[in-house]
Specification:
heterodimer; A: 203 residues; Rossmann fold; five-stranded parallel sheet; 51% helix; globular; B: 389 residues; mainly alpha; 19 helices
Chain lengths: 203, 389
């Protein structure tokens, strides 16, 4: 079955241009979708997904059991949602403002499984957040279980959830459940916030 | 066998076709069948591509000989190429290649057919901007080239290598190696009896000089090509007509651009050419934009852009269209065009112009309307300075 690149972006003019760019640059068909729910019916054909970070969570929910690389379309890589998406499984970020060449290059890398810059990218982003979040210490451990602390430690080391699942011999879904519990206990909404808290409790 | 409608052709071409048809009718069944092929070749040569393909299909359907079938498909592919119908070319070339590869031991004739098919496939990939596939074919070509002694075949293979040079440098500022290659091709093809190959080499020469902005030399080659083609072989003829137009356009010569664009359009329409019809519209869009006839300019530019096969011609219509959009303050579409022009498979543009296009693309992506408007004006100014508008 011929693989298709799916693009999710609220700016239709940009997403259509990205589809045109990728079709010409990769020889694969590229299709623009407006709602991540639409992915459910075509997920088997997905060779790669390009998305705004805001849609990432929904894309995961609508593609359980399927695996494809995800490239985030983001002008601002420091944006919280971007970091969150990288933690939870997105593979790379591209700024379309840099032009078509970079988009094609990153897409081709992901299509040929050649990406290895993700951990560095997450580490860099965490460092930025750490700089911003320097403040008073916190001695509470928020009632985290041993497993949850282990996962949080891995998150602090800039490992994304797929990797954590591999290292801890757990399924991706199990790790996600643990992460949700961690967020709830720490009272945070994102991975970056969770990491900052983890730093504060000196985990 | 009925002769297709040939009233639009020159009296000389009509006569040639009638003679060829009479040969088929006067021969017996078997010999008559053999005579169909030159008749179909002739139809293709005079621009009756669709009709010629019908006869090639007849040949394929009525024989079990794999090599003849492969040759039939290869000729269909070339006929499609004559119209710049890239998808048709690719499909027919694939059929031809699949057939030739079925032959257990490829003899001399089979090998030659295989080389011709490779040449055809290289052109198909080139026109579809499938550069990786083109490179793979050229690699194969380079491996068989030392064994090829036939001049026509060698020149075909050299042509395929030329295509990879075009693709590598993306039609801008070719290096010295391109011209050495051209000289070799001209020298080889000048020895052939059929002047088409020599004419085509001149057309290719014009193409090389054009994109190195040596316009007078480019036109000399195109003129020589047109003269040798003698109104036939539209594949090459339209190329020479069209790029003569572009040479005048890049020198800001409005009347000559219009004259050649109309000539090209007439011939391209006559042969239902997929590429040179939209390219002519793009050139007419430029003429009208230069005369500040914005409505006509936009209409022509959109006609060019709407044609799917015009993707690789984006730079031919983008700047007149951008200027029209700038007049109407429709910045979004203009920004989108700038972004597209930066695509690494499209024509490379001068560095100064590319930089300005990058600024527009950045402003467009970040939806910065003020920056977008200002940078678009800079792009138009730079395009005028560099001969692209």
């Amino acid at each position: 079955m011929e693989k298709i690149i799916y693009i999710f972006h609220r700016n239709t003019s940009l997403s259509e241009t990205l589809a045109w760019t990728l079709q010409l640059g990769t020889d694969l068909k590229a299709v623009c979708l407006q709602d991540p729910l639409q992915l459910k019916t075509v997920v088997e054909q997905a060779g790669l997904v390009l998305t705004e970070p805001e849609f990432f969570e929904k894309i995961l929910e609508n593609s359980i059991g399927f695996s494809f690389p995800v490239l985030l379309i983001a002008n601002n890589p420091e944006f919280d949602k971007t970091i969150e998406a990288l933690y939870t499984g997105a593979d790379d970020i591209v700024d379309p403002g840099n032009g078509p060449e970079e988009i094609i290059e990153k897409t081709n890398q992901l299509l040929h499984h050649k990406t290895d810059g993700k951990n560095l990218l997450i580490k860099k982003l965490i460092q930025q957040i750490k700089e911003q979040g320097k403040g008073g210490g916190d001695e509470t451990d928020y009632g985290l279980t041993v497993k949850e602390k282990e996962i949080l430690r891995f998150m602090k080391e800039a490992q994304h959830l797929k990797q954590i699942a591999k290292v801890t011999n757990s399924s991706y879904e199990t790790v996600r459940t643990h992460v949700k519990h961690i967020y709830k206990k720490l009272g945070v909404m994102s991975a970056s916030e969770a990491v900052i808290k983890a730093m504060k409790i000196d985990l | 066998m009925e002769l297709p409608d040939i009233k639009h052709l020159s009296p000389e071409d009509q006569e040639l076709l009638i003679q060829s048809q009479q040969k088929i009718l006067s021969e017996g069944d078997e010999k008559g069948f053999i005579a169909i092929e030159p008749f179909a070749d002739l139809l293709d040569k005079v621009g009756m591509h669709h009709e010629s393909r019908q006869y090639f299909r007849k040949i394929i359907a009525s024989t079990d000989n794999i090599l003849t079938q492969a040759r039939g498909w290869r000729k269909i592919a070339f006929s499609c190429l004559g119209q710049r119908n890239y998808i048709g070319t690719a499909e027919a070339a694939e059929c031809a290649a699949a057939l030739v590869l079925q032959l257990p031991i490829i003899d001399k004739e089979g090998k030659e057919e295989y080389v011709r098919i490779l040449h055809c496939m290289a052109q198909s990939c080139y026109f579809q901007l499938k550069f990786e596939k083109l490179e793979a074919i050229v690699k194969e070509i380079k491996s068989v080239l030392p064994d090829i002694t036939d001049i026509e075949l060698r020149s075909n293979l050299l042509h395929a290598i030329s295509l990879s040079i075009y693709a590598k440098y993306r039609w801008y500022q070719f290096p010295e190696e391109a011209f050495t290659h051209l000289e070799l091709q001209l020298q080889l093809t000048s020895q052939l009896k059929d002047k088409f190959h020599y004419a085509y080499s001149h057309c290719l020469g014009g193409f090389f000089y054009l994109f190195n902005e040596e316009f007078t030399l480019a036109r000399e080659h195109f003129t020589k090509g047109i003269e040798l083609l003698d109104g036939k072989n539209f594949h090459a003829l339209l190329m020479a007509y069209n790029y003569t137009t572009v040479s005048y356009r890049m020198q800001n010569n409005i009347p000559m651009t219009e004259h050649w664009a109309l000539l090209t359009l007439e011939k391209a329409k006559q042969t239902s050419n997929f590429s040179y019809v939209p390219y002519s519209y793009a050139n007419l869009a430029w003429v009208n934009a230069k005369r500040n006839n914005w409505l006509y300019a936009e209409d022509y530019a959109r006609k060019a852009a709407d044609d799917w096969s015009a993707i690789k011609l984006t730079s031919s219509y983008a700047f007149p269209l951008m200027n029209c959009l700038l007049q109407k303050k429709e910045f979004n579409e203009a920004g989108q065009l700038a972004f597209k022009l930066l695509h690494p498979r499209l024509k490379r543009l001068p560095g100064s112009l590319t930089e300005k296009l990058r600024t527009v693309a950045k402003a467009w992506v970040s939806d910065n309307k003020i920056e977008l408007g200002n940078s678009l004006e800079d792009v138009i100014d730079e395009a005028k300075l560099t001969g692209y508008f």
